[in-house]
Amino acid sequence: MGVIDLGNASYVYMKYSKSGNRGFEGSSNRSSIIFQVKHRVVFSMASALPVKQVTEEGQQRLTGDSFIRPHLKKLSPYQPILPFEVLSTRLGREPEDIIKLDANENPYGPPPEVLEALGTMKFPYIYPDPESRRLRAALADDSGLESDYILAGCGADELIDLIMRCVLDPGDKIVDCPPTFTMYEFDANVNGAAVIKVPRNFDFSLNVERISEVVEMEKPKCIFLTSPNNPDGSIISDEVLLKILSLPILVVLDEAYIEFSGLESRMKWVKRHENLIVLRTFSKRAGLAGLRVGYGAFPSSIVEYLWRAKQPYNVSVAAEVAACAALQNPTYLENVKNALVREKGRLYKLLKGVPFLNPFPSYSNFILCEVTSGRDAKMLKEDLAKMGVMIRHYNNKELRGYVRVSVGKPEHTDVLMECLGRLS
Ligand SMILES: Cc1ncc(COP(=O)(O)O)c(C=O)c1O
After folding, report:
1. Does residue 36 register a pLDDT over 50?
2. Which of 174, 234, 318, 373 is deepest in the core (most CB within 10 A)?
3. What is the 3-class SS of the chain, one letter each residue?
4. How much distance in Å is there from the Cα of 16 to the middle of ligand 1?
């Protein structure tokens, strides 16, 4: 297959010559493509519109989705949580009157330095540093791992996808251990990979024996592990992690919530383990979910390929400015984390007292609860939403009848408990 360099062409004009050969002509407007069949222009298209093609043999319709890769047609859309403004309209409440405990966001937001830095940002009209040098230097100070091992992204989400794009050929396999963060499965599907599921044990611990068997039998390329795990908040011990690292598989350890666990990050382990990647984020620790900044620690032998494959400007100027400013106030980050960990303890005790909830102990800023006593988890979520309190409910195979409550400020817990009391 050849490559046609259209770098300088802003208008592409595709036509069939009388001999049936196809060629490119012209140059003036980037957004339209005109196809000619035997000198007859049969359609022009804008990217998102269905396409009609008429051939000399007769009428034939070709719609836009005929261009879509077949495996993507089977993809079910990711179900993100609703943004504040949409929720506000739906619930008929001001955004400020909605208590959002459904996406593990940090309700304290970032340190004040962040808003100040964003307000005085000097060069928003210049493309950002493709290497996010300032941020990576600050992250090296923060983590104790040299910046050469660190790559930043548009949220940890982008890095999950980037890793898959670098590692997986269509048809390759990944191991996923549900219940867990659903983006691993989603991105694997987008990347044309097969997902081998090794469900967690009853107590949400990893089924290491089964993982080992699957690695031997199916030869998957990588496994996604999460510590603390979303949605139950359990952690992975050194012993278990080392056992999995000893297998011939790339281990992506997602530490999006590590700050709340009281445990040290495994970022530095990437110097010792060629098959380990560790992902982290500013979304939770620094209240920057809306600005999209994540980062990862990678072995040197892997990171160079991610540099080659990533979008050059994946971390915006605003995101880098905000993340650097957040790291300048470690005391704020520590205080906010402590407040959330304290509040989690209080929330857990209170949820234990609710007759129709069975909460699970969590090392993170959320608590998973089984909805018991014949109550319906979806209805519980909807009833709370009507009262302006958003929680997450699950309806998948592993977690039917469960809800997850993010830890908020003490006043959020108070309102949640009052609402749960009204539903008792
Ligand atoms: C386990 C886990 N990893 C990654 C993310 C996404 O992080 P980011 O906001 O940096 O994309 C989340 C978000 O909820 C998460 O739960």
Report:
1. no
2. 174
3. CCCCCCCCCCCEEEEECCCCCEEEECCCCCCCEEEEECCEEEEEECCCCCCEEEECCEEEECCHHHHCCHHHHCCCCCCCCCCHHHHHHHHCCCHHHCEEECCCCCCCCCCHHHHHHHHCCCCCCCCCCCCCHHHHHHHHHHHCCCHHHEEEECHHHHHHHHHHHHHCCCCCEEEECCCCCCHHHHHHHHCCCEEEECCCCCCCCCCHHHHHHHHHHHCCCEEEEECCCCCCCCCCCHHHHHHHHCCCCEEEEECCCHHHHCCCCCHHHHHCCCCEEEEEEHHHHCCCHHHCCEEEECCHHHHHHHHHHCCCCCCCHHHHHHHHHHHCCHHHHHHHHHHHHHHHHHHHHHHHCCCCEEECCCCCCEEEEEECCCCCHHHHHHHHHHCCEEEEEECCHHHCCEEEEECCCHHHHHHHHHHHHHHC
4. 48
